[in-house]
Amino acid sequence: MKTNNKGLRKILWGKNYTLKNGDDRKVINFFWIHVFFLFILSMPFILSPAMASQDEILRFIETKQKEIREKEEAIKIEEERLNILKKEIEEKMENYKRLLNQIEEVLKRIEQINDEKLNKVVKTYESMSPEDAAARLSMLEDKIAVSILVKMKDKKASAIIAALEPRKAASITEKMANFVKNFPIR
């Protein structure tokens, strides 16, 4: 059996027509023109889910871009707030450093005044006889007596300790051995 290809071509593509200017053109069959137009006319229905999803995608992208802009603005505002706080903290730290320096100066001055006063007391006790100095030192707290005796010349301090009653002399001597002068710690 032989198929007639010409007949099939006629159905698919139509007949050869000679146009007025002499061109031979194949004219598409009326059936296929209808199929083409039906396809074109049905495109919105075929593509509408894709178009809807594109619209949704565009809305989603716009929403995300808006969220990103809002977050960027929030970050900028937070960054400005943090910069202001940083400046405030730096200013406060500078103030605290200044105050700390002033306090250290005042403490040094107080220590200097106390040392001057203690030196005067030490000179007073050194000018006394060992028995009188011992009688008076025995009435003081051990801590104060130790401070005075530590600043005295060794010969004078030993004479005063020798004049103290034995228990008081032992207590003061023990504290003198463990005596550490308190300096302000930086």
Number of helical segments with 4 or more residues: 6
Spatial arrangement of strands, main beta sheet: 1-2
Sequence of secondary-structure elements:
HEEHHHHH
Structural class: mainly alpha
Q: Tell me the span between the first and last alpha carbons.
A: 115 Å
Overall helicity:
over 70%
Oligomer: single chain
> What is the rounded Rg?
55 Å
The pLDDT mean sits at 79
Report the principal-axis shape: rod-shaped
Descriptive report:
This protein has 186 residues and is mainly α. It has a domain at 128-186. It has helices spanning 5-13, 30-127, 130-139, 142-151, 154-163, 166-177; strands spanning 16-18, 24-26. It has a two-stranded antiparallel sheet with strand order 1-2. α2 crosses α4. The longest helix has 98 residues, at 30-127. The N and C termini lie far apart (115 Å). The mean pLDDT is 79.
Secondary structure blueprint with pairings:
Blueprint: H1 5-13, E1 16-18, E2 24-26, H2 30-127, H3 130-139, H4 142-151, H5 154-163, H6 166-177
Antiparallel strand pairs: 1-2
Helix pairs in contact: 2-4, 3-5, 4-6
